[in-house]
């Protein structure tokens, strides 16, 4: 609004409509400032140490708003330029000065308010730390219950404050670090409960004490990192992060090489040699790893050697071109640049393949959690000898997973994913020994229910992290394939003059804030359904199956519609959404045919049920197509159409949630027992063999879930009442 006022055209003729519009804008700015100042003054009254500064900034803002209102009070003037009253037409610089004062004072208020928020988080953290100290020292169960109830309430408050702060952060790397720290706190809250109870029940048990101390230490580190992010204090680890990733090194190196096209003299040749040397040094993490396959190791070494040769050739041509800029030399330089970049791309691809194939194999191999099951069984039996054997197995598994995280970190592609890899590595490093100490405690006290429950909690944390790794691996692959770490998004967007003859006649419309708020719940339901559908498709062994591919595409489209309800993603206008809905409906019809083809291969009692459910898809998809193609006019009608499209998309996704598990079950029943086995990689040699063969529980990872914290508090209150 301020920009509109300052940039208005100084026409000689000013209509009544123009004058009224200018006055309305001025009044709107003044009212907005008045509301803003009211909030600022309320904050000032609650925070006496900043009251004076905040009050001064509020007064300045209020004065500037009133000045703008006075200068735009022009609607009642027939000839404003001849009148003695000063207006925007006679003193435009006055509006500019008032606008500058307004912006600076508003900024002051925001900065002061931000300082207050930071102080609230620090105060909340200090309360949590103080209560943790009390929890560490308690000697009776009754006292522990009372203090833990208080601790739970304080953690809920801390969770709300840090959750809001995380949403406000603009830096994606800081946001990822905050999410990681809050995830640690969420998981540790339950661990702290069971570890402390175990220690109280078995006060002379050394392994129980070690287990409890580990949880407290982990929580303190996480609380410290939250404060470090909130106060924007730099740590040594943050500087180290940028230098470790091979991908970031390759990106910077390629930019420097390509910069030679514009300027032959902008850096010395030694710089490029040093940069390549650092990159190739980091590739040793892959070539030295015991878990990298022989084939990948050989390829990486070959490409490293080739990269050195290409750089030598590039430097040679580059030096010649600096002395003599002939056409032939410049062409040779271009060829050398292209070959150097191509070599680095191939190296990057090989590293990505080595890391992700190892991760996929490891995650699949450890999905049955055989070691954890064995530890639980032998712990209850009190078999210390078997516990020692299986703790060695778990330590080996931990080393494999830690190595996997380190290699994935190199190829993560973005800083937030790099942070997530570091968090995963730390989680495996810490949780492994905690599971071992919890298992030893149970083996020493095999009849202890609390010791058994404690081991279960730590094992669940391990399983949860393994489940999170599957999501992380998918996101890393998305980045590598150019999807920038977002969920897969279907890119069939309308372009002017294509797809639809009526596009030019329709004015693209975006949802306003009020409409987004109305449709938010529906969008969230759609988001949850896409997550459920994705979980079901991941259970299929054959990811190349036509049904899986159709469903993945539809899930991507549904997710892009969800993002539209939030005002995000690639669907920018309602017309984009309607076009996406049409394509979604077409894909749904094709999927129904795929289900029919699939049913022809079945010889099972479940075949009629599958056909019955698949038949429901066709009418819903047809209705969606009709709705999406229907022409509407007016804001209200457009919003109704948007709502209808998303509701019908939700219905289709609900059907898919029912169809996919049914298909998967029928496929397993009808599948022959012959399977093609790969040669066992080195980390498979010490496979734990037991007679059980259970399913991997599907888990949904929460990021410091408020509900789970509140449930801890509720449980403790119930315990206290008992």
What are the salient characteristics of this protein?
about 725 residues, mainly alpha, Four Helix Bundle (Hemerythrin (Met), subunit A), about 75% helix, globular
What does this molecule look like?
Keywords: Cytoplasm. This protein has 722 residues and is mainly α. Among the domains are: 1-75 and 88-113, Four Helix Bundle (Hemerythrin (Met), subunit A), CATH 1.20.120.230; 118-231, Four Helix Bundle (Hemerythrin (Met), subunit A); 246-359, Nucleotidyltransferases  domain 2 (Four Helix Bundle (Hemerythrin (Met), subunit A), Up-down Bundle); 513-670, Alpha-catenin/vinculin-like (Four Helix Bundle (Hemerythrin (Met), subunit A)), CATH 1.20.120.230. The protein has 23 helices and no strands. It has helices at residues 2-6, 16-46, 51-71, 92-137, 141-168, 172-201, 206-230, 236-244, 246-259, 269-282, 284-287, 294-323, 327-365, 370-381, 384-410, 415-444, 449-480, 513-538, 546-565, 574-600, 607-629, 635-670, 706-721. It is globular, with a radius of gyration of 31 Å. The model is unreliable at 78-83, 236-243, 485-507, 672-680, 684-707 and 717-722 (pLDDT under 50).
Summed up, what is this model?
The protein has helices at residues 2-6, 16-46, 51-71, 92-137, 141-168, 172-201, 206-230, 236-244, 246-259, 269-282, 284-287, 294-323, 327-365, 370-381, 384-410, 415-444, 449-480, 513-538, 546-565, 574-600, 607-629, 635-670, 706-721.
